[in-house]
């Protein structure tokens, strides 16, 4: 972004730059040893494969950019490995072995020097080491080091999650997974974040980490222009109030790393090798036999110790000029470092001693430190900090032509799979909880059930990593993530099927088939949301005549039509209304046919109206012949001249909005000699997108329950196969059903691919809304950000792309068009009244680094993303957007089986009492975590000291409940109000509530015992001066305020 664009943001920075804040004494440098260990990216976590071995210093592209080991100053210096390494095969790959090298050697070396420190970040590798590698002696040493504060866990989540394309629910899950392990195993609770590698920073992050109990947050990657300006203004540290509704109640002190980021500066002027990396670069699959690693720094000797000291001190002083206090954070480490901690500390120990012995003349003192050591020293200074509001740091660029906005869409299939797995886990958690409470209703083994839940929790947590769901990993690592997710989802479906079969036939399992073939099907449909939901579920059946009945034998509104996927099968659409956290069960049988006198009610049959192929028109003769498709909320008008959508009339506002949709492609460069390229990370279009089609076919499948509009886009008039498709659905909600959400949406499923090489596919929706080229997109499904179009000197298209995780909208003074998504996409407005969603990318380039790591994104898949469109007034769409987004994310789970002869005896529709919340309150989780620790911290600590660590059984009686207020302050006159609920009444279907404990976000803190640090933000002002509304401790009646997320342990009366 040009400097002028940042002036409004920089004004408070410049005003808050006080003269003479730094003390006259020496600068105090906190040397923080660490290893950045990606859970995936290029190498699988555990497995075998083949991969070129290159310097870890080359993580990401060696393009000029901030930080890591690439940059010296702002322009950047690239360190290349020896040529012989670029093609060296790696026959075996085991990240577990690498993790063992890091943790084994670090623990050993920390025990040898009281002054030494180390921070551990992500839990997946540590847990693998702890459970499968560490000896009893090493485990004892870890506990001692933690107790002494010389080993410190920061973040503590299962991974370091991405901030742009992850959903808040999954961020909370992976944090909860890691925190639960750390607390159960060691009784510790991380207090600081170390979010150094996600590609841009979300405004959800400060709220998330504040709710988790953190005292300070550390990030790194923000736009290069903004970082340079903040460095100059000494504004890299501030108090961040990420939520406009929660404001100072959930603020957090934030430190943004300077341009060197999380890696030690690699350039030293007296050597042609890197500096401060004495163990060199990790080699896969096993250490070199001669013990000599690539790019090992020169050992510290009496001959060069002064030169090393001068280099380190010069860098510390350079950094000190960018911060307001004399305390300088100096991270020592980088990707895959400290696999030989012995040689690392053996060289750094004398260097630090030498500097400290000359501190007076050098003006710098140094010490090993944890992140907590640094933040405690900073907090003790009691400096007044500026406040940053709820704006995020997205998008992220490292240069004018390096906008990291491509990963918002990269590997769309993996993004979709990750979200489906998350939704399945969400449903399975509450389904199992309802199965156990108030009393188990079958023979399911709870230990086995917990194993299925834990397997999927692990997989969903893992894929939130900043090189996983982002699509920035190698193909084999993508396959690893997908395999873990698929395996976890299979186990979850087995668990769900076991629960349903116990419910249907508690005494005996149901036969799945008979010799004569199935007599029909049964479907059990579970609603995982805590509201009554009316929706359509779609099944595939093999017979054209179908009769659907419910638990009481009554016919159910349904519709049959030709399948869009299987020519010999049929799509069966069933209208269902399901109370919160409840089931509906249906029998599906073929009808008797045209027998005399049969009056058997059957699913209605849809009829199809086909429209011939139309060429793309380059003139404005369209709109003469319009075909309406209507339900009770909308009339969609289709243009017969083009086979495209023409406009939408919305009933409540009685307004018609011009709406046209088409597919376009950005043609991007793949030759580094010809200019900037696109890749997994970057989106670098050379020019505007062009239409990706020449002709469109259309058919309208009209039924009494649903009408579908199917549009097929062909690259040319004679093409046999279409590359793109839109399937739009409007539902006709019968009288007597509360179908407000169902009526007020146009459901669209797209098909895109396979793409031609170096194409980036977008769906562009053009309207006559006077949007001023402003769109709104969400941060992680939690809050919305205003995204005005900004003109740049270079790369304006890419730098105006933003992540859409769950929702986006554009509006004018009368109407708003909302887009809801079931996976993350890049989104932009490239013209007034336009919004485009990037659906798919297929890229290849000849850049050696990309080729070496197989990161060219040659994705030949066909993707099928889904968007729901809402059109209406501001008030209507405000009321519906959040609940509709959740209805899309958490659609009912359907368990579908064959009937063998006679139907099972179905339970009554109200046999299990519903769980229902007010419409502005979302049940974020209801689960049985199975933790083995006592909720009482003193008791848990005593048990750990006594060595009672593996004896406790999984606690099946403790239920984790988390509630989330969906609305911002002032967003809606009714729904934005605080909401009071009685948990005893809400949860009475699960039994009698005997105790309610309010906890921190991840459950490890008793909230009444959590006292986060206050940071001064003005004269006499500390965090906490404005407190949250008073709450009676431990009672079942709670009041949840706008955007609050509140977490509880619920204990029920055991039966």
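^ structure tokens above, recovered residues below v
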């Amino acid at each position: 972004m040009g400097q002028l664009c940042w002036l409004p943001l920089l004004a408070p920075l410049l005003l808050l730059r006080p003269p003479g804040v730094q003390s006259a004494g020496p600068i105090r440098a906190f040397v923080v040893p660490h290893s950045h260990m990606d859970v995936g990216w290029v190498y699988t976590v555990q497995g075998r494969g083949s991969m070129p071995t290159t310097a870890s210093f080359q993580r990401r592209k060696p393009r000029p950019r901030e930080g890591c080991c690439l940059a010296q100053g702002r322009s950047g210096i690239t360190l290349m490995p020896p040529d012989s390494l670029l093609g060296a095969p790696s026959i075996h790959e085991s990240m577990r072995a690498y993790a063992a090298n890091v943790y084994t050697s670090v623990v050993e070396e920390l025990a040898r020097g009281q002054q030494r420190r180390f921070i551990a970040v992500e839990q997946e590798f540590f847990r693998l080491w702890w459970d499968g590698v560490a000896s009893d002696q090493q485990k004892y040493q870890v506990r001692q080091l933690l107790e002494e504060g010389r080993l410190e866990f920061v973040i503590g989540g299962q991974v370091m999650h991405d901030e742009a394309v992850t959903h808040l629910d999954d961020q909370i899950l992976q944090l909860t997974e890691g925190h639960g392990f750390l607390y159960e195993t060691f009784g510790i609770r991380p207090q600081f974040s170390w979010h150094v590698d996600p590609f841009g920073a979300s405004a959800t992050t400060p709220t998330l980490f504040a709710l988790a109990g953190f005292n300070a947050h550390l990030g790194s990657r923000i736009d290069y222009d903004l970082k340079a300006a903040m460095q100059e203004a000494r504004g890299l540290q501030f108090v961040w109030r990420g939520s406009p509704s929660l404001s100072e109640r959930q603020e957090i002190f934030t430190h943004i790393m300077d341009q060197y980021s999380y890696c030690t500066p690699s350039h030293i002027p007296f050597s042609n090798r890197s500096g401060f990396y004495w163990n060199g670069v990790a080699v896969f699959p096993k250490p070199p036999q001669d013990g000599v690693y690539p790019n090992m720094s020169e050992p510290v000797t009496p001959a060069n110790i002064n030169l090393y000291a001068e280099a380190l001190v010069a860098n510390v002083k350079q950094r000190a000029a960018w911060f307001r206090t004399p305390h300088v954070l100096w991270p020592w480490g980088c990707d895959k470092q400290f696999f030989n901690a012995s040689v690392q500390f053996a060289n750094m120990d004398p260097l630090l001693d030498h500097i400290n012995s000359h501190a007076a003349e050098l003006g710098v003192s140094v010490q090993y430190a944890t992140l907590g050591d640094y933040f405690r020293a900073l907090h003790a200074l009691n400096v007044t900090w500026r406040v940053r509001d709820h704006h995020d740091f997205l998008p992220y660029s490292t240069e004018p032509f390096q906008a990291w906005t491509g990963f918002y869409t990269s590997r769309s299939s993996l993004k979709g799979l990750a979200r489906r797995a998350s939704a399945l886990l969400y449903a399975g958690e509450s389904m199992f909880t309802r199965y156990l409470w108030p009393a188990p209703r079958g023979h399911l083994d709870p230990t086995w059930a917990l194993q299925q839940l834990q397997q999927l929790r692990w997989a969903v947590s893992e894929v939130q990593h900043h090189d996983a769901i982002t699509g920035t990993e190698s193909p084999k690592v993508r396959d690893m993530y997908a395999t873990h997710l698929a395996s976890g989802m299979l186990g979850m479906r087995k668990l769900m099927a076991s629960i349903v079969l116990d419910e249907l036939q508690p005494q005996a399992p149901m036969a799945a088939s008979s010799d004569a073939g199935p007599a029909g099907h049964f479907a059990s449909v579970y609603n995982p949301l805590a509201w009554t939901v009316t929706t359509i579920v779609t099944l595939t059946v093999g017979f054209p005549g179908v009769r659907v009945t419910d638990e009481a034998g009554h016919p159910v509104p349904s519709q049959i039509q030709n399948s869009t996927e299987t020519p010999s099968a049929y799509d069966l659409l069933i209208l269902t209304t399901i109370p919160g956290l409840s089931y509906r069960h249906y029998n599906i049988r073929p009808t008797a046919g045209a027998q005399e006198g049969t009056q058997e009610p059957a699913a209605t049959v849809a009829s199809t109206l086909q429209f011939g192929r139309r060429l793309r028109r380059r003139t404005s003769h369209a709109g003469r012949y319009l075909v309406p498709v209507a339900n009770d909320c909308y009339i969609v008008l289709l243009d017969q001249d083009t086979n495209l959508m023409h406009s939408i009339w919305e009933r409540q506002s009685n307004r018609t909005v011009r709406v046209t949709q088409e597919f376009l492609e950005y043609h991007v460069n793949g030759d580094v000699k010809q200019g900037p390229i696109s890749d997994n990370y970057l989106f670098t279009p050379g020019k505007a997108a062009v239409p990706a089609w020449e002709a469109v076919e259309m058919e309208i499948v009209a039924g009494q329950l649903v009408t579908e509009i199917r549009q097929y886009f062909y690259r040319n008039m004679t093409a046999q196969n279409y590359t793109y498709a839109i399937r739009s659905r409007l539902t006709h909600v019968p009288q007597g059903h509360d179908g407000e959400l169902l009526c007020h949406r146009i459901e669209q499923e797209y098909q895109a691919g396979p793409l031609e090489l170096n194409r980036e596919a977008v769906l562009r929706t053009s309207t006559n809304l006077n949007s001023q080229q402003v769109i709104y997109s969400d941060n992680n499904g939690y809050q919305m950000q205003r995204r005005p179009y900004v003109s740049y000197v270079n790369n304006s298209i890419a730098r105006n792309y933003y992540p859409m995780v769950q929702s986006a909208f554009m509006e004018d003074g009368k109407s708003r068009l909302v887009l809801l998504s079931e996976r993350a996409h890049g989104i932009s407005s490239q013209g007034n009244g336009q919004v485009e969603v990037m659906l798919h990318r297929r890229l290849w380039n000849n850049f050696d680094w990309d080729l070496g790591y197989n990161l060219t994104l040659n994705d030949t898949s066909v993707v099928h993303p889904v968007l729901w469109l809402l059109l209406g007034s501001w008030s209507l769409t405000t009321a519906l957007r959040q609940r509709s987004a959740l209805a899309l994310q958490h659609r009912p789970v359907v368990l579908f089986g064959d009937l063998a002869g006679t139907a099972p005896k179905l339970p009554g529709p109200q046999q299990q009492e519903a769980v229902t919340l007010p419409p502005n309150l979302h049940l974020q989780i209801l689960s049985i975590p199975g933790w083995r620790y006592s909720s009482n911290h003193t008791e848990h600590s005593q048990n750990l000291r006594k060595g009672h660590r593996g004896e406790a059984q999984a606690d099946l009686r403790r239920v984790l409940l988390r509630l989330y207020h969906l609305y911002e302050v002032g967003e809606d006159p009714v729904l934005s109000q605080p909401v009071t609920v009685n948990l005893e009444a809400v949860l009475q279907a699960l039994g009698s509530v005997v105790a309610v404990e309010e906890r921190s976000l991840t459950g490890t803190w008793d909230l009444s015992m959590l006292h986060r640090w206050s940071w001064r933000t003005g004269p006499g002002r500390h965090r906490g001066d404005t407190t949250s509304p008073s709450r009676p401790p431990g009672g079942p009646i709670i009041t949840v305020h706008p955007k609050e997320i509140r977490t509880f342990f619920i204990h029920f009366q055991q039966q």
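Residues 1-20, 47-92, 506-516, 1023-1029 have pLDDT under 50 and may be disordered.
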